[in-house]
Amino acid sequence: MVAMIDLNTVDDDETPSSGSSSSSSSSASASASTVCGSLLSAASSVCLELWHACAGPLISLPKKGSLVVYFPQGHLEQLSDYPAVAYDLPPHVFCRVVDVKLHAEVVTDEVYAQVSLVPETKIKQKLQEGEIEADGGEEEDIEGSIKSMTPHMFCKTLTASDTSTHGGFSVPRRAAEDCFPPLDYKQQRPSQELVAKDLHGFEWRFRHIYRGQPRRHLLTTGWSAFVNKKKLVSGDAVLFLRGGDGELRLGIRRAAQIKGSSPFPALCSQQLNLNTLTAVVNAISTRSVFNICYNPRYFTVHPSS
């Protein structure tokens, strides 16, 4: 269950209700020089442009200062032995977004967000009486600009050949020519070194070559190391994104959870316990700030510290 609804995306005549989003291929912009440097929080270290590309095009995050509805049931589902009545929790809580921090799991590269909320107990009555309208938050709509621009980006689902230890990564010609620096086709075997940063800012180096019969674009040297380190398998997707500053970035979308890994981000799973839920209950009663984690690839929200 999605445990948070952004009121700024709900029509005036609709009643807020939980829903699910699905993610597919490309969603990013062409201006890394402005967008990648404009993070939702100073404490975030993930490029907003790349984060959204990995999350998928149907994912939307509330902006700092915007009004949302928080549903405690989304957390209680993770602790099924403890019903809402045991905590005297309301079915929903109107909250103001204090902060949004973007993260990526170190092991899996799964993207998620930590959202800080503060209860707004008087908002519901004012909304019902028409005294105020749900506002869009105090920040510039950077996220909206991302989705409205055409990116220099491609996303490809990996084949068995792409993940072979002795193979390379085959790139469609149109994608390579749009996203990668141009090759000198006058050379007998056009090639170049590509440097791409992942979600953690780590630089990966690949040999980009144009060869074969018929000729095709391939990433060779460095590709197997990337596949092994990220534990990629056939069916996973890899995306490359080139921003306005020319910097190349890459991310992944997994087809399934890595065997033995937790479906929850470490930051969230460490806090997914009764003590944290009690802290959330106290925060609601005292109108103080509490945090939740939103994982767009699992379409659920989890409590955080």
From TrEMBL:
Residues 154-256 form the TF-B3 domain. It comes from the Eukaryota. Pfam families: B3 (PF02362). Transmembrane segments: none annotated. Gene3D superfamilies: DNA-binding pseudobarrel domain (2.40.330.10). It is found in: Nucleus. Residues 17-28 have a biased composition (Low complexity). GO terms for biological process: auxin-activated signaling pathway; regulation of DNA-templated transcription. PROSITE patterns: B3. The keyword Hydrolase does not apply. Residues 1-28 are annotated as: Disordered. Keywords: Auxin signaling pathway, DNA-binding, Nucleus, Transcription, Transcription regulation. One of its GO terms (cellular component) is nucleus. Belongs to the ARF family. This is Auxin response factor 3. The gene is ARF3_1.
